[in-house]
Design goal:
heterodimer; A: 496 residues; mainly beta; 4-stranded antiparallel sheet; 5 helices; 10% helix; globular; B: 246 residues; alpha+beta; 5-stranded mixed sheet; 4-stranded mixed sheet; 12 strands
Chain lengths: 496, 246
């Protein structure tokens, strides 16, 4: 909770990517935690963060810390994961932008802009938005209207102030926005931007996304925001399971494919130009390719057998997929054109759902049922070094974090008759195989996917009663639902 | 003379009385009472009957009707008819005949109902069942343990029955659909369903069924037979399902 009477603080723009920290106690007591139903829920130890990181160290922000902290004063074991660990988030005040003219369209466009802008910043996990109830009555629309004393001291006590104006003039929508460091009255301006576009609702939303991303880039330590990213997913709302797309915040949902059968597992290419998916055709399950350049399907070879779960390498040059063309479901890799198909696994039992190491492109994770129930594996991109990562239960839908160090996946740790069988999302540090549970709140949770900045995870959950797309911060907090119509599954976040 | 006079007197009396009587009669005729108003035209009468009143579809019955004092007689569904008559009818379903007789004296309705019963199904020889009918009634689906794709022991009799039928109907081609229950991931279940279908196919080809007669497809958990979340329903959904290929 926000405390309005804190002394002036120096905010630390540090350690932004998701980090998992285990004490040595957690390590020793892992077996005990396995046996407890919800013991692995995070426990916070206030004020125990040992690293003071100064702004000069901001350049190390992309480095995600995975530490075993040997000497914690508390005797209790603890597990902690989150964004901006140990860092006070920047208190940012965002008064509504003001109309810059008297055009009748201004009111509606301002509402769209202000709602979108606020949500983008709120969802980012980078800043702490100062509640609007603390704001002075007069909000600035121009730099000259900023009264620093009203913002940099209680009640708002903001460190940063984002403000600006919006108006339609001569058929053009113009937005001016500023980001001010209100504690630094001598040289307050961090950012000043002007955007011009057509006066439509979509344009107002896009400008809000762009300006929010600019602010998150500054306050998030150089890691780009995600407000302009897209999420692809499967929806049955047309009567068939088809591939749909939406903005990252759930707006602008629209149907991409019209196959009229069953289409699954959308995966967008790293450059955003193509989307591979699996669809039931007359000849069986085939990989199909949708092009955003021509907004239709383009040709892709039919391999025979059941072909599922395509996955793009981070350079966009190759695809991994599951095919039973040789009789058994195995992981194959081919060029982005479908040429040079090569088998990577050779086991009895299904091998499916590959995903690349998004940082190196040199390893893959996948699901294999070679020992019975499905488990998570990793291997080198040439098929060597196949390593089992999960030790029990039913583990599926792995995905590799953008930083290359973590896996997320869906896991029913106690699977079998008479077991509750809750499917929850987990985060695993690959080097140590240490894991934390991210979801606890019931329903079947599956198919976690990372946002481009690695701060968010999108997933499908039945917690609302039926399968819908949800999004949360990578530490499992700030959940919110993105879809509400029909059944919506298998979300895939764009790469940028 | 006196006797003759008496006779004349009697004659005169008779003649006189007759004259009086006749005159009276004549007088009556000459002045009749005013004529009463003409009587109203008689109301039409109508009756209709059908005999027999119950027939089987395809048989006929005789419809008879009689009317009087009617100038315009019609029966719904037949049209204008003679004032009285009869006609053969053979409707396919039960029919109510409605006769309307119109005359100067008004309109009279009459109805009768003919009940038509459907004939008992003909005791003809059933056509020989098609291969598809036989396939659907003879070939047994194969059920699986959860998360397993190998054929369990209690399903071997189904496989054997299927092999027997398929050997006897060597022209039949078919698809084996692999299905899974609702638990677990979409992608893994599609791969598992593929293995189940392959597993059934392998059992059949091992027993000598030509592999080119068999297609396989996985539906994973996309097309469940049963949608409840309990073990009985899940077992129904974990199967290799045979579909005749036309």
């Amino acid at each position: 909770m926000r405390q309005p009477n804190l002394p002036a603080r120096t905010y630390r723009l540090t350690i932004l990517s998701c980090a998992v920290l285990f004490s040595s106690h957690a390590h020793k007591n892992r077996k005990r935690m396995d046996d407890g139903a919800r013991d692995d829920r995070e426990r916070r130890v206030p004020g125990s963060w040992p690293f003071g990181v100064r702004p000069a160290e901001i350049l190390t922000l992309l480095v995600v810390l995975v530490s075993l902290l040997a000497s914690i004063s508390s005797a209790q074991d603890w597990v902690r994961t989150g964004t901006s660990l140990g860092v006070e988030k920047v208190p940012l005040a965002v008064p509504d932008f003001k109309p810059s003219g008297a055009d009748p369209q201004n009111a509606a466009l301002l509402k769209t802009f202000n709602d979108t802008f606020w949500n983008d910043l709120d969802n980012s996990g980078v800043v702490e938005l100062v509640s609007k109830s603390f704001y002075p009555l007069q909000a600035p629309g121009q730099p000259a209207e900023v009264t620093f004393g009203l913002w940099n001291s209680p009640p708002p006590n903001a460190a940063m102030l984002a403000f600006g104006n919006l108006g339609v003039l001569a058929g053009k929508l113009t937005v001016q926005g500023w980001l001010y460091d209100v504690k630094n009255t001598a040289s307050p301006q961090v950012l000043g931007k002007q955007y011009t576009d057509v006066p439509t609702d979509d344009a107002a939303r896009l400008i809000a996304h762009k300006f929010a991303d600019e602010i998150i880039l500054r306050l998030g330590g150089g890691l780009a925001g995600i407000a302009e990213s897209k999420i692809y997913f499967v929806s049955d709302r047309s009567g068939h399971k088809e591939i749909w797309a939406m903005d990252y915040d759930g707006s602008n949902q629209h149907q991409l494919t019209h196959q009229g059968s069953i289409s699954l597992s959308p995966r967008v290419s790293p450059d955003g130009s193509r989307l591979a998916f699996s669809s039931l055709t007359k000849s069986g399950w085939d990989i199909l390719m949708y092009s955003f350049d021509v907004n239709r399907l383009v040709s892709f070879p039919r391999f025979g057998g059941t072909n599922l779960s395509p996955a793009w390498s981070p350079d966009g040059a190759r695809l991994a997929l599951s095919s039973s063309r040789g009789g058994d479901s195995e992981i194959y890799i081919c060029d982005a054109s479908g040429a040079n198909l090569r088998r990577m696994t050779n086991n009895k039992g299904p091998d499916v759902s590959p995903a690349w190491n998004r940082k190196t492109g040199a390893q893959l994770t996948f699901v294999s049922g070679r020992t019975g129930l499905p488990q998570i594996y990793t291997m080198e991109a040439d098929g060597t070094g196949q390593t089992r990562m999960t030790d029990q239960g039913y583990a599926v839908s792995p995905n590799w974090a953008p930083n290359g160090q973590f896996l997320t996946f869906a896991w029913i740790r106690k699977y079998g008759p008479g077991e509750p069988g809750a499917s929850d999302l987990y985060l695993m540090d690959i080097a140590s195989k240490q894991w934390v549970q991210l979801t606890h709140d019931g329903g079947r949770n599956d198919f976690p996917g990372w946002s481009p900045d690695g701060r968010h995870i999108v997933f499908q959950s039945s917690r609302s009663g039926k399968e819908e797309i949800w999004e949360m911060l990578a530490d499992g907090t700030k959940l919110h639902q993105l879809t509400f119509t029909g059944r919506n599954t298998q979300p895939n976040w764009s790469w940028k | 003379m006196k006797h003759q006079t008496l006779k004349l007197k009697w004659f005169a009396l008779v003649v006189g009385l007759s004259a009086v009587l006749m005159l009276g009669a004549c007088k009556k005729k000459a002045a009749p009472p005013p004529p009463p108003p003409p009587p109203p035209p008689a109301s039409p009468t109508a009756s209709i009957s059908v005999s027999p009143d119950t027939i089987q579809a395809g048989q006929s019955s005789t419809l008879s009707w009689q009317t009087s004092n009617a100038t315009d007689v019609s029966i719904d569904g037949i049209g204008a008819v003679q004032p009285s008559g009869s006609q053969q009818v053979s409707p396919s379903t039960s029919t109510t005949y409605h006769l309307t007789a119109k005359g100067a004296g008004g309109t009279q309705d009459a109805t009768t109902r003919l009940t038509v019963t459907q004939p008992p199904p003909p005791v003809t020889q059933t056509p020989s069942p098609t291969d598809e009918d036989l396939f659907n009634s003879s070939v047994k689906d194969v059920y699986f343990e959860y998360e397993k794709s190998d054929i369990r022991g209690d399903q071997q009799p189904s496989i054997q029955a299927d092999v027997l039928f398929l050997n006897q109907h060597s022209n039949v081609s078919f698809t084996i659909e692999g299905h899974c229950d609702e638990r677990g991931s979409t992608e893994y279940n599609l791969a598992l369903g593929d293995q189940r279908a392959s597993s059934v196919k392998n059992a059949l080809t091992t027993a000598g069924i030509a592999s080119n007669r068999i297609k396989t497809i996985s539906y994973g958990k996309e097309k469940p037979f049963c949608t409840e979340s309990n073990e009985a329903c899940w077992q129904q959904n974990r199967r290799g399902h045979f579909v005749y290929q036309k």
